[in-house]
Amino acid sequence: MQNEKAHEPANILESAPLWRRIESAVRREILEGQHPPGTQLPSDRQIAAAHGASRMTARRALAALEQDGLIRIEHGSGTFVNDDALVRYRMSGDRIRFGKDWIVAEGTLLRRKVMRTFEQAADAKLAQGLRLIPGDPVLCMQIAAFADDRPISIGIRHCDARRFKGLQHAFEREGSITAALKTYGVEDYRRASTDVTARMPTLEEARLLAQPRLQPVLAYTAIDVDVKSGAIVSYHLGCFAADRVVISIGGDSD
User: Fold this and answer.
1) 150 has which bridge partners?
2) Could you tell me whether strands 217-226 and 71-74 are parallel, antiparallel, or unpaired per DSSP bridges?
């Protein structure tokens, strides 16, 4: 569809609205390699000036390209040509981790950051996921994962607030969830279940992932358990930026 648009007859484009002609020109430049994947496009002001148009007209053209998935507009940062997936996340067996053994991202710096923490009373869904009683206190850690400076996922890790009080500080101090959990006596944990589905992001998810609101995400629900005791460690709800992550499902890698 994108290639067809890039090669529309000139007489059709000549009679098209100006924003449509700008869209076609920028699309052609991208497909012909003048703007490689991952690079930043000229600003809407520069594009408007190059085509003798208003910024509003240039923005409409860019919005159409974004809706087609050819570019992404990161407010405050600029407009970028979409690139291939940044990381490959291996869901092999029941050992799921955020690190070099589970995520393939050669030449990419992987990191996670706690965006915010809060407590809430367990509703029916959280109580069931954590095996708590409705109303019990739940520690909620909103964590974003990055490949270099690009966000690849955002989610909330829910834990029993009484058992894991201060877990966010242990995570920031230790640098990993695995190491932080060991300070609470959880020597090892495994993934008991993971459900993945495609859906549209919420406004907050789209903002934190720096992606269009109309671009789907890969949403997940997961439960981790203590290997030794079988007790629930955490209940996760979150999503991956679908265009930046490839999820590989296979047998154990050991």
Assistant:
1) 147
2) unpaired
SS3 content of the chain, % helix, strand, coil (to 5): 30, 35, 35
Rounded to whole angstroms, the Cα distance separating 222 from 216 reads 19
Count other C-beta atoms under 10 Å from residue 178's C-beta.
16
pLDDT at 116: 95
**Contact by Cβ (8 Å): 5, 26:** no
3-state secondary structure of 118: strand
Q: How far apart are CA 159 and CA 166, in angstroms?
A: 11
pLDDT band at residue 6 under the 50/70/90 scheme: very low
Are the C-beta atoms of 44 and 55 separated by less than 8 Å? yes
* N residues, the chain: 254
* Burial grade of 29 (CB within 10 A; 0-12, 13-18, 19 or more): middle
Distance CA 6, CA 8 (A): 6
Q: Which of 70-74, 148-152, 245-249 has the lowest mean pLDDT?
A: 245-249
How many angstroms separate the CA atoms of 206 and 189, rounded?
30
Residues contacting residue 169 through CB under 8 Å, at least 6 positions apart: none
At 205-221, the pLDDT tens digits run 999 998 888 889 999 99
Whole-model pTM: value is 0.66
pLDDT at 15: 74
The Cα 20–Cα 28 span in angstroms is: 12
Asked whether 25 and 65 are in contact (CB, 8 A), the reply is no
Q: In which order are the strands placed within the sheet that holds 87-92? A: 103-104, 87-92, 245-250
